[in-house]
Amino acid sequence: MVSIVISLLCCWAFLPLLRVNGEFRGNDSCVFPFAYWGQTYFTCTNKNEQNGSFWCATTGSYDKNSQWNYCTEVDRNSHGPCVFPFIYNGTIYSSCTTAGSSTGKLWCSLTSNYDENPKWTYCTPSEPRPCVFPFIFRGRSYYKCTRTGAHDNVLWCATTDNYDRDTKWKICSSQEYEGTSHGQPCFFPFIYKGRTFFTCTNENEHEENGRFWCATSGSYDKEKKWSYCADTRLDINPTGPCVFPFIYGGKSYSTCTTDGPSLGMFWCSLTSNYDEDPKWTYCKFSEQRPCVFPFIYNGEPYSTCTRKGSADNLLWCATTANYDRDTKWKTCSMQEYEGSSKGKPCIFPFIYRKRSFYTCTNEYSEDRRFWCATTRNYDKDMQWSYCADTRIDANSIGTCVFPFIYKGQNYSSCTSAGIYNSKRWCSLTSNYDVDPRWAYCTY
């Protein structure tokens, strides 16, 4: 009897302490990340293991399922749970990061201060799968990444539609990562297979596991630069390319629109007929910059928005002087948008700082985008919108200067003198003969 007890104690000693009720799964592979005592592990650990052997959970949570196996290959210099938050280069991180990674791979510190104690590991999951929204956790539905249930307050999501059933999850990245651009941020809109994307996509250009990616320049077709999308960009909203033209309210649209209850923000349909299949997304730009006129495209100058080169016949412009060099662009708006008036149309002329404007202006605009007042007097009403890009071209923009000199004669109001089409115009300088900048007087 004594020998039997000794034999049992001998065998029991090899099992990790505090896992005496756990289930040894000798044929199952490690699952990373896994949760143990409320901490997140991307490595094997010998925590609470009497003989120092390294082990791992075989589901996403040892705390929940208590299933484990021994590890066969272990980097003994880099093991343990991620510590959140941690300090790196003086900055606090509460999730895995790509900071300092030349390859754009996500990593975490295994100490609270990497600067003082530089131990780390890559945040590499066993199954590189995307977040699934919505997912069930503790009987409740979640539609985006959450911190609920995370003892280390990390942002996470399930990678199946039911965490309670499958115990599969991942830490949500708050940065783009990996790809040919090594984690450079997304650029929206981007062109992929001739279509316009304002969202991440999981069309299987790169792999079959369904992870979402984005281009990191204005055209994937041209430059082939991409990253995996930050999980915090994703939710239950549909993804995919804008479809132009699309039907909304029985009307055809060939560009993004502010029509409908959008509060003056641009949106597009992700289907050819929104009325029948209402999937949509906002047309949000990575860089809030105005059209630049003239701009170079395929070696030729363009002084207005154009449809040239657009496979979906979209009206567009470059946001730098040379698209061929920079690949930066935006869809051209045909309506006013946003602003304090939520996209109401321009009113010309309008008073701004006691001056009359007959054109859009970018005076005192931080991002240099052009705007207009939507009442006769901005100084009084403070109502404005960003101008439709189709109002902007290579002509001069600014306020009329009265009086002005033209061909030696003084003018104190708009005139049609010298204009073949009889449209009224004004000088944007006090002496047109010396400094010939002008604009049409738009009423």
Entry keywords:
mainly beta, Seminal Fluid Protein  PDC-109 (Domain B), three-stranded antiparallel β-sheet, three-stranded mixed β-sheet, disordered N terminus, 443 residues, 34 strands, 7% helix
Descriptive report:
Its main location: secreted. Pfam families: fn2 (PF00040). Residues 1-22 form the signal peptide. By secondary structure, the protein is mainly beta. Among the domains are: 11-70, Seminal Fluid Protein  PDC-109 (Domain B); 295-331, Ribbon (Seminal Fluid Protein  PDC-109 (Domain B)), CATH 2.10.10.10. The protein is 7% helix and 23% strand. It is built from 6 helices and 34 strands. It has helices at residues 2-12, 62-65, 163-166, 220-223, 323-326, 378-381; strands spanning 23-24, 34-36, 39-41, 55-57, 67-70, 81-82, 86-88, 91-93, 107-109, 120-122, 135-137, 140-142, 156-158, 169-171, 190-192, 195-197, 213-215, 226-228, 246-248, 251-253, 267-269, 280-282, 295-297, 300-302, 316-318, 329-331, 350-352, 355-357, 371-373, 384-386, 404-406, 409-411, 425-427, 438-440. A 3-stranded mixed β-sheet has the order 1-5-4, with no helix packed on it. Strands 2-3-6 form a 3-stranded antiparallel β-sheet, with no helix packed on it. The chain has a two-stranded antiparallel ribbon with strand order 7-8. The N and C termini lie far apart (105 Å). Mean pLDDT is 88; it is low at 1-20.
The largest sheet has its strands arranged as 1-5-4
Task: Name the CATH class of the domain at 11-70.
Answer: Mainly Beta
Determine the fraction of residues in helical runs and give it as a percent range: under 10%
Chain oligomer state: single chain
Which sheet architecture does the biggest sheet show?
3 strands, mixed
The outline comes out as elongated
E-strand count: 34
End-to-end Cα distance, whole Å, is: 105 Å
- Total helices: the number is 6
Strand coverage percent: 15-25%
Would you identify the regions where 5 or more consecutive residues have pLDDT less than 50?
1-20
Question: Helix/strand/pairing class, anyone?
Answer: mainly beta
CATH architect. name of the domain at 11-70: Ribbon
The CATH superfamily of the domain at 11-70 is: Fibronectin, type II, collagen-binding
Fold-level CATH name of the domain at 11-70: Seminal Fluid Protein  PDC-109 (Domain B)
Rg computed from alpha carbons, rounded to a whole number of angstroms? 30 Å
Residue-averaged pLDDT? 88
